[in-house]
Design goal:
This protein is α/β, with parallel strands linked by helices. It has one domain: Rossmann fold. The chain has nine helices and ten strands. β9 and β10 form a beta hairpin.
């Protein structure tokens, strides 16, 4: 397996407030990898550093072979096209139809003819389990689960190598959440994509993640699988498991 993302002694601070204090980990190609931890542990901050929304204070964050702190603006622009992001609440443009939301990246970053862009967008919507009728609908007309799927279709528009998900099942009813879990597993198998997600959903952690880190006290408290976590003798990690 090749490493697609690697953090090397990453320090993140806001003024005198240290969030991460020298953390290191690696994410392998094809993994579904989780960023776990309590409130304020820096899960989403870490995700933001991977997708160039925030810089590390010290150390290195390498994504797809690039130290993201050393990229020029043109290099950063090119690298961003190699991943897709699903934000917690979908972040769809409310004034655009669902089809327009999915086509926007293709129109912005490619020279593909419009008819092929629309065809590609319809395929992505079908891939995430949405019926053809949603193409003309607006985000306000969709349920929470359908908005998440539409946001996911948009994240997949440019056929990315990496998919970043921020609390993908947050706000969904149990049935919709488990359906979304199945979708992520199917996409990994179908597309061979590598997935990085922030989550606190116990079922997602149990059944979807291949491996995860648990953040706490500015450090990585655990790096491994659910089976490894079950076997730990660390009392604080046992509490997290329960």
């Amino acid at each position: 397996m090749s490493i697609l993302i690697e953090a090397k002694k990453v320090v993140t601070s806001f003024g005198k407030n240290i969030i991460h204090d020298g953390i290191s980990f690696a994410i392998q190609k094809g993994e579904i990898f989780g960023l776990l931890g309590g409130s304020g542990s820096g899960k989403t901050t870490l995700l933001r550093e991977m997708i160039l929304l925030q810089k590390v204070t010290q150390g290195e964050m390498n994504v797809l072979g690039h130290n993201v702190s050393e990229l020029s603006s043109s290099e950063a622009w090119a690298l961003r096209q190699k991943w897709g992001v699903l934000f917690q609440f979908g972040a769809l443009f409310t004034s655009l139809t669902i089809l327009e939301n999915v086509t926007i990246a293709l129109k912005e970053y490619t020279d593909i003819p419009d008819y092929l862009i629309e065809e590609s967008a319809r395929m992505k919507l079908s891939l995430v389990g949405l019926p053809p009728k949603v193409t003309t609908m607006f985000p306000s007309e969709l349920s929470g689960g359908m908005k998440k799927r539409a946001g996911l279709a948009r994240a997949l528009a440019l056929d990315p190598k990496l998919l970043f998900l921020d609390e993908p099942t947050s706000g969904l009813d149990p049935h919709s959440a488990r359906g979304f879990d199945e979708l992520i597993l199917n996409l990994r198998e179908t597309l061979g994509i590598t997935v990085v997600m922030v989550t606190h959903d116990k079922d997602t952690i149990e059944h979807v993640l291949d491996r995860f880190i648990i953040l706490g006290n500015k450090k990585i408290l655990f790096d491994g699988t659910m089976n490894m976590l079950r076997q730990t003798s660390d009392a604080s990690l046992k509490t997290f498991l329960n």
